[in-house]
Amino acid sequence: MGQPPCVLMKEKQASGNFMLFLAAVIFPSLMQLHEGINEVEDKKQKAICLERYRRRDEDQKTVISEIDDNIEEECGICMEINSKVVLPTCSHAMCIKCYRDWRSRSQSCPFCRDSLKRVNSADLWIYTDNKDIIDVATVRRENLRRLFMYIDKLPTVIPESVFDVYDSHVK
């Protein structure tokens, strides 16, 4: 019929020890294994997503860069593709026709409202293409070369008396 109480007690104690063994040793090992598997899966999923989105981003960047090139070439006011002038005070660009039209009506930049009172037409920068922009060192070398060419072409002027003899004893 039933088992004696001491056998039941030993079985209960053995099952308690087994549960303690499960909780102390096996469960943490299973959790580490589960986390490791999840981590590997997460890395795989991240790699797949990064590749997928990187390709999509590259495709979008090429489309956006083509659009940006067209936008950079067109005037911000009339939206026509013309050579542009750049305002020296704020560096905003527009075509010369729009600049003249705007300047006849207002003394401020049409984009940021910066004052244009002291800006003359000679102060404007002409911007025609990205390839036309040169670094400052190149511009400086070119300017020095032009200066020296100009100086070389100047006529030589020699004064009649290079040295005035000054004699303190002569009166």
Short description:
This protein has 171 residues and is mainly alpha-helical. 57% of the residues lie in helices and 5% in strands.
Walk me through what this model shows.
Keywords: Metal-binding, Zinc, Zinc-finger. InterPro entries: Znf_RING, Znf_RING/FYVE/PHD, Znf_RING_CS. It holds the Pfam family zf-C3HC4_3. The structure is a single chain. With 171 residues, this protein is mostly helical. It has 2 domains: 1-73; 84-153, 2-Layer Sandwich (Herpes Virus-1), CATH 3.30.40. It is built from 3 helices and 3 strands, in the order αββαβα. Strands 2-1-3 form a 3-stranded antiparallel β-sheet. Strand 1 and strand 2 form a beta hairpin. The chain is elongated, with a radius of gyration of 42 Å. The mean pLDDT is 72.
Draw up the topology in text.
Layout: H1 5-73, E1 84-86, E2 93-95, H2 96-105, E3 125-127, H3 136-153
